[in-house]
Amino acid sequence: ATKKLLVLPGDGIGPEIMREVARVVTWMERARGVVFDISEDLVGGASLAVHGVPIRDEVIAAAKAADAVLFGSVGDPRWASAGFDRRPEIAILKLRQELELFANLRPAKVFDALVDASTLKPEIVAGLDIMIVRETVGGIYFGEPRGIETLPDGSRRGINTEIYTTAEIERVARVAFDLARQRGNRVCSVEKCNVMESGLLWKEVVTDLHARDYPDVELSHMLADNCAMQLVRNPRQFDVIVTGNLFGDLLSDLASMLTGSLGMLPSATLGAVDASGRRPALYEPIHGSAPDIAGKGIANPLAQILSFSMLLRYSFGMEAEAVLIETAVANVLASGLRTADIMSPGTAQVGTAVMGEAVVRELDKL
Amino acid sequence: ATKKLLVLPGDGIGPEIMREVARVVTWMERARGVVFDISEDLVGGASLAVHGVPIRDEVIAAAKAADAVLFGSVGDPRWASAGFDRRPEIAILKLRQELELFANLRPAKVFDALVDASTLKPEIVAGLDIMIVRETVGGIYFGEPRGIETLPDGSRRGINTEIYTTAEIERVARVAFDLARQRGNRVCSVEKCNVMESGLLWKEVVTDLHARDYPDVELSHMLADNCAMQLVRNPRQFDVIVTGNLFGDLLSDLASMLTGSLGMLPSATLGAVDASGRRPALYEPIHGSAPDIAGKGIANPLAQILSFSMLLRYSFGMEAEAVLIETAVANVLASGLRTADIMSPGTAQVGTAVMGEAVVRELDKL
Ligand SMILES: CC(C)[C@H](C(=O)O)[C@@H](O)C(=O)O
Ligand SMILES: CC(C)[C@H](C(=O)O)[C@@H](O)C(=O)O
Fold it and tell me: What CA–CA distance (Å, rounded) separates B170 from B156?
């Protein structure tokens, strides 16, 4: 069956690292006989520049029709003061919401060859392998009422609303428990139930679901501030962390920075399996659009390539092919090639294209 | 003039570390002729056990009448399932709100003698000295509507509201700018203006205030998720960080954990100067009640002692005495004494009381 992909490179380094994924796609078609039907479109600042909006309705429709979306990243300083309705970021927020991509899977994994890239001591992070499951269509990101209002005395007030329903909490917690069963079998649920009622409900719903359907998985609870500390103190204590949209935003970025190699980390954002067995899904690197190095040919394409490997695994069940890509990436690192962001003494610095080519060459050997 | 202090040891290790502060207070009275009028009361789980509430109205009134409050910490697992209205944490939340203690000053400082205590590499954290100014009476901690409601279909929904007004943002930003002028003269304002309108207003108000009253201070803006990353990547890039209640909760805990020695870090929470020149203020260590080691005589009393030194500085302008205490603490560390939490090879482990006595002995020598 043809596999329908929508590719959205977006802003900054997005287009140039996506070109390296194209090589891997071509390799998969040639060497493994996979047939992809790929279309590409603009999002973020790139779309604003051409179409005046961060994402067009046609692109949302194409994303819904696709089997999977491969996303680069959005964010462009040139649109920083264009107004709240013309933020490049709307593209990713709208995709998450319209496709109901509620579970963002963000692995924070330290590659053996890169353990020294971390600002943390090697004995703290060696072998680190955490999966953060972040809720992505609810919470304060989307709750109403929201906005800025002017008060009678001329002063202003900004409002946002955090809302979580039983159903929203349950479905993302299920994803976390299911994942844990395939990993270390431990879930840590994170909220601020000592201050926020939405966190209190979160904790109760996760506890109930656990007792009902996942008694075999080890469940713990942690306050979000403590989790931020524990990630620094002893990150390897965690297996799967499940948390809301806003806490997940901070904690997953924090966790990925522990690895010291953001340029290596992919992510998947999944929706619900529908009646016909299809599951909307979007794959993107954890790093941003990095406008400061865009166009220079020095960006690290590996997180984008590994996002494609996640896509093969989660959207098409192509575990063998996903592992092939991951092995090729590990071999390239072991051979000593590095992009600027992961350079260390005794390794060889290469640009974006050479790194992409090297992955394909390793694939050829496997 | 007599200096009126309210001492609230609270739960866990609170009482035992507060006893060590008492030694330092006595020293100040004896050696420097300062006259303190001290009263003490129960808060948190300790108050729940005796009075059935986490804090009594009389205690709030006494706190308002005092020149400064010296707080231990609240939190007790025995009250974990006592219900949202009987959380020990209500004690500190109510004190902040009733005294309008809107600016929480949380230094994250690496002591030279303890640079190896951090899980981060010494070259990343040596000399680290950040001040986080966290808003503490607004935002999602206190906004209405809030609560858990049951929907017609029997499912539930948890709601909290983030609200920030121009005035709330301005007054805490002023504290940050004023502090920056006495330090590195740089302020980084942190929000999620790419997702939340309350963050957008935050950024605008800080920007306007800066242009109007603090053009000499260097101002930058950063998204909260990026700030979490940057604190791990290169924490020394920051001088003063100013942010809202919830982001401040996570980011200040994260920043303090970078030092690896939570047991060393004090904090101050300040209100507004009133017509008669008084300023409500509360001082507390950053670490929590640590119920697991409570009553064992092994807790580190230094953060509580340094909170008293902050109290002398900010509430009474006693800079010389504040520095005396800080010097005494530094000398004790230099002499090789350590409580269990900051032990390292080649130093001598001591308990809570011996550490407190050592500080007083050093004060005697100064
Ligand atoms: C781009 C932005 C809106 C987004 C978010 O805050 O969710 C990003 O930080 C992320 O984590 O994917
Ligand atoms: C005890 C708790 C309510 C409090 C908070 O969340 O503000 C604590 O974590 C803090 O940072 O002082």
Answer: 37
